[in-house]
């Protein structure tokens, strides 16, 4: 059962990896076929575009899970870390509200307002299969924003931005490499 929940907890990562691998392989195939045989598959580019769009939206959900979305944080420079947590959580309430409204509007568009005969150019399937990523990804993103805030506020976990750099560790590593290389030159 824990494997199942581990899979569910990382579903965006697995989806992104799969989509990336498939559309890169498809585009590579398209380049090879065009170069060697002066021929192209008309459906490859369209499918790759749709897969890339799905990749972007699931990637945004994964970034929300990691707490890695861009934020303007200069105004927090003079505040305590505790205050920053609560201000960010308050800002995340607006994000959640936006996501919920967006999910509602996307579902309304897909099921009520979208042209019933609108299909993809070369693949021929109904475009609702492409647009369905919007409510799915924004729902996942909302769940991830709530999950991150639960971890920060209730469990009191320190969320580290995966893109943040520990400058002291980088300097220490650079100095250790600089010392060992200068000793080797002597």
UniProtKB/TrEMBL annotation:
Residues 24-151 form the Tripartite ATP-independent periplasmic transporters DctQ component domain. Pfam families: DctQ. It comes from Ruegeria haliotis. The chain crosses the membrane at residues 20-41, 47-68, 89-111, 123-143. Part of the tripartite ATP-independent periplasmic (TRAP) transport system. This is TRAP transporter small permease protein. It is found in: Cell inner membrane. Belongs to the TRAP transporter small permease family. PANTHER family: 2,3-DIKETO-L-GULONATE TRAP TRANSPORTER SMALL PERMEASE PROTEIN YIAM. The complex comprises the extracytoplasmic solute receptor protein and the two transmembrane proteins. Keywords: Cell inner membrane, Cell membrane, Membrane, Transmembrane, Transmembrane helix, Transport.
């Amino acid at each position: 059962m824990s494997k199942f929940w581990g899979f569910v907890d990382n579903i965006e990562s697995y989806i992104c990896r799969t989509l990336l691998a498939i559309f890169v392989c498809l585009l590579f195939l398209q380049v090879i076929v065009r170069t060697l045989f002066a021929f192209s598959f008309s459906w490859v580019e369209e499918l790759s575009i749709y897969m890339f769009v799905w990749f972007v939206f699931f990637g945004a959900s994964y970034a929300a899970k990691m707490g890695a979305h861009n934020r303007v944080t200069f105004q927090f420079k003079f505040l305590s870390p505790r205050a920053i947590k609560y201000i960010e959580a308050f800002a995340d309430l607006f994000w959640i509200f936006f996501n919920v409204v967006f999910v509602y509007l996307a579902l309304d568009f897909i099921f009520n307002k979208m042209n019933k005969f609108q299909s993809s150019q070369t693949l021929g399937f109904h475009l609702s299969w492409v647009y369905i990523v919007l409510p799915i990804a924004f729902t996942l993103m909302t769940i991830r924003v709530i999950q991150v805030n639960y971890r920060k506020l209730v469990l009191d976990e320190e969320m580290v931005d995966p893109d943040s750099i520990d400058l002291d560790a980088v300097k220490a590593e650079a100095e250790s490499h600089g010392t060992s290389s200068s000793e080797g030159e002597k």
